[in-house]
């Protein structure tokens, strides 16, 4: 996706809203809307947004896990499996 093709002024969105929605949904691309020459809003297909949010959540979990390991807050594998077997 070329961002230069997906940047439009708010006036374009106002006059072509249904076309914008159709294109965003069919192409799964994000459109950047400008106001007074500055990027202010994006229009994004909901499923792409949901996938992005899920990816961010997984990255946060990985970062938290990595930080826990660096702080020494973990159980050796053997102990973890033993705890699972006991339950």
Give a quick set of tags describing it.
87 residues; alpha+beta; YefM-like fold; 2 domains; 3-stranded mixed β-sheet; 5 helices; elongated
Task: Summarize the model shown.
It comes from Chlorobaculum thiosulfatiphilum. With 87 residues, the chain is an alpha+beta fold.
Low-confidence stretches: none
Q: According to CATH, what is the class of the largest domain?
A: Alpha Beta
Q: Name the average pLDDT.
A: 93
Please give the count of helices: 5
Number of domains in the coordinates?
Answer: 2
- The global form is elongated
CATH architecture name of the largest domain: 3-Layer(aba) Sandwich
- What CATH calls the topology of the largest domain is YefM-like fold
- Secondary-structure-based class equals alpha+beta
Element order, helices and strands?
Answer: HEHHEEHH
């Amino acid at each position: 996706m070329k961002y230069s093709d997906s940047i439009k002024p708010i006036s374009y969105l106002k006059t072509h809203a249904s076309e914008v929605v159709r294109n965003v949904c069919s192409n799964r691309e994000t459109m950047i809307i400008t106001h007074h020459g500055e990027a202010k809003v994006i229009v994004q297909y909901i499923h792409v947004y949901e996938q992005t949010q899920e990816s961010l959540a997984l990255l946060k979990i990985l970062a938290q896990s990595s930080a826990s390991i660096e702080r020494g807050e973990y159980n050796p594998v053997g102990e973890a499996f033993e705890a699972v077997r006991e339950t």
